[in-house]
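hey m, so remember when u said the tokens were messed up on ur end? i reran from scratch. heres the input so u can diff it against urs
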Amino acid sequence: MILSKESKIILGTVQLGLDYGINNPNGKPDQIVSNQILNKAFENKITLLDTAEAYGNSQEVIGTYHKQAKHKFKVITKFSSSRTDLPEAIEERVKANIETLGVQSLYCYMFHNYADFNSYFTEFESGIVTLKEQGIIEKLGVSVYTNDELEDLLNYDQIDVVQIPFNLLDNTQQRLEILKKAQLKGIEIHTRSAFLQGLFFKNTKELAANLQPLKPYLELIQDAASSNNLSVADLALNYACNQETISNVLIGVDSVVQLEQNLESLKVDITADVIEKMNSIQVNDISLLNPSNWN
């Protein structure tokens, strides 16, 4: 079955709980605006939210929304070892998250990073199996940064979902082969950083010194968009959504207008020639593709 681009979208909610993103001058929205964003998403058939224990009060914002809404989203949330205020036992911890989120069960419970997976999976495994058997979590996942991390996860039959960066720079040159291997194993692939935290929208004349090596690639992207009558958002979002190896594409917004713009972008079609041009981009210093290295 071929999924529509719209049905691939997951709404990320880190912006609802934290000031987040290189291109976000306004900070996180309040509960009223968050409710408006969530309503607009649901009205447009986005039914899956991505959040985490480490995303500020994002889980509380979603829970407050669910208490007054007539519908509920499916939710992915993530274990974070930094949250020492939550129960240590995994079954109690997941149930505490569920209560905060105002849902009956989780679509997926993820380890927020590969290090947490390595440190805690053995300890949590039996509890996770029990939670799955009880229908409290449907899937288990891990959020990763590198291909090597994903390669190792292929050794674990218990992993159902992997979240990994993918975008116009962190593209098929970087990811295609490992994504194909994961897909063949039946792993659901969620990608994040479609807009590289808003970097694609920055004026290249205003790039910080450490990001200057990315300037020619960003100019190539911006030129490809304008020469094909596309916005950069059109190009970036459709590039990810058109990949056959990708199950779902995560986007985050901090306003209803941003969400509406992204939904409009999904109505645009980009040609195979444009996709191939983006596929051909190869960033050699891949450390620049990880926002945590930007400082």
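this time it looks ok to me. The mean pLDDT is 95. if urs says something different then somethings off w ur setup not the seq
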